[in-house]
What does this fold into?
Amino acid sequence: MIGRFRLEEHGTTVRREVRAGVTTFLTMSYIVVVNPLILSQAGMPADGVLAATCLAAALGSALMGLLTNYPFALAPGMGLNAFFTYTVVLSLGLPWQGALAAVFVSGAIFLGLTLTRLREAVVNAIPLGLKCAISVGIGFFIALIGLKNAGLVVFHPGTGSLGLVDGRYFDDAELRALLPPDTSMASIGVALAGLGVTAGLVVRRVRGALLWGMVVTTLVGLPLGVTGSGTGGIVSWPSGLAETFLALDFAALTGAGLLTVILTFTFVDLFDTTGTLVGLAGKAGYLDEQGRLPRVRRALTADSLATMGGALFGTNTTTTYVESAAGVADGGRTGLTALTTAALFLVALFFAPLVGHVPAVATAPVLVIVGVFMMEPVTRIDFTDYAEAVPAFLTIAAMPLTYSISEGIAAGLLSYTLLAVVRGRAGRLGPALWVLSALLVIRYVFT
It folds into this structure.
């Protein structure tokens, strides 16, 4: 079994892969707690969603590890769960059972596009400079998530932009509402201490620096009352899955809003997954000389099957997680890392309260450091060629500023195509890039 991962060929060991898998799991384990909180607002049973989240993440991560031998983990997507709840269910009025059916249909569309190699063509059509920019943009995006989770960076109503937190946010009820839940001066102090400890471990090149950083930060927070959102206890029996498993209602997929819902699920997952795969592959060194990702078809198949399986379990679209970069940065190079993460999500079915005790301030420093790790590809962008530099910059800037990977990719691709036309090099754009640009225009016009 272990031999199929070709550890020696990738210059790694079982211990390193398992450790990287643990790091990835701890970095993205927040989804076990957050996803039920969001989807329960759509009327779904929280216990069922928690179980479905763990099973979907385990299925997707295992498929990725076994089909591709890549160290990338999957789970129900953040952002997509908000769209599921607040737009599809609460705004459009589709019952959550119908929304699950829409997720399943979008997953089937993904699979069809993958088997016909259209999605693979999409990934390969992105120019190398933009692929490097995507990796860098994801790094800034991850770092911003970490800083926001720590409560260090907040929205300032006075300036209309992001800024550092100050004392007013703890004295004014309206401003406090802009902070993450349970944020306090103590939690911010713990996050800063964790960032210092984690950065120091990285500088000293300590093996498992990110994992040890999370452990130390969690331990520092315990006596200060800084813990996760767990509700007590350590072990619990998984319950509620019977209420969400196979609860899909395809009969609800009628009406004018159906096409918009499915198209949005399709577009967002297509570009989020593409961007995440490219960014992670660039960091792990998997891209070939032409900037193409080997075995990308298998990776996209794993993503598609995970989305369909997640819908059957009872959760929103399952996608590749940018937090996988934490495991890659910790030495993960093969599918054994992803398989370890999958196993831990199965364990989380029974230890959900314990997982919930890992505070956001413990993972926040890791996300910031991973953002640093993702900066390296910026050196491969030719900023002396403005036809490449402008799309690359827009890609990098748009991801954190719009809080969306897909919006960053859209900004980069559309500007790249436009500038190629202005430059008189439209003939050098392949058919796939023209199709991508047309799809993005359709997306903005009609959805």
Remarks:
- The first strand starts at residue 74 and ends at 76.
- The chain is about 65% helix and 5% strand.
- The first helix runs from residue 14 to 28.
